[in-house]
Amino acid sequence: MHKIYDFHTHTILSDGELICSEQIRHAQIHGYSAIAITDHVDESNIDFVIDNLNKFIEKEGSYFTDIKILAGVEITHVPPSIIDSLAKYAKEKGIQIVVVHGETIVEPVIEKTNYYAVRSKYVDILAHPGLISEEDVQEAAKNSIFLELSARRGHSLSNGHVCKLAKKFGAKLLVNSDGHGPNDFLDYEFAFKIAVSAGLDSQEAISVLKDYPLEIIRKL
Predict the structure, then answer these.
(1) Is the pTM of this model over 0.90?
(2) CATH code, 4-219
């Protein structure tokens, strides 16, 4: 059975539908090997999200023995110039995966969000980065920041563009669900189709679904 890795999911700590325990149980049923809970944060709620997520992992995480639970956040719709400091603060508070809500084509994300995200040493993943520029993809590659191929409706419309530039400049890609509810969990076959339909060949898709997630986990 192929393993599933998902580094971008949401719970009721922000705008998701499930509490953390439900999130992990659904992930187990879908065959996940690792999942990051990455609820939306800005200055108003970052402490609330991090403190409660860390509490959940500390108190319950050890009972889920067959899945790796990663503490994450998704920095969302903040003024771009504070992305770096907010990401640094999250890492100092014990967060393992910092995702930035990229300039998706279906939401009014502030211009230059992609620019600042790929230049922060504290950011791990730029989610659904929309019509990202060549310059910013090159920076992502240089700074080892992963670009997301999104499974989420709307965000996924720009996967082909993201994939094309990532291949051109050597940036690494991940397939993530951006899951908000019980119907959003991935299986390997669907994740593979997302990767291939974005423009990857079969071997490249395997790297995106297996090798790169393991690279992230080893770094942690």
Answers:
(1) yes
(2) 3.20.20.140
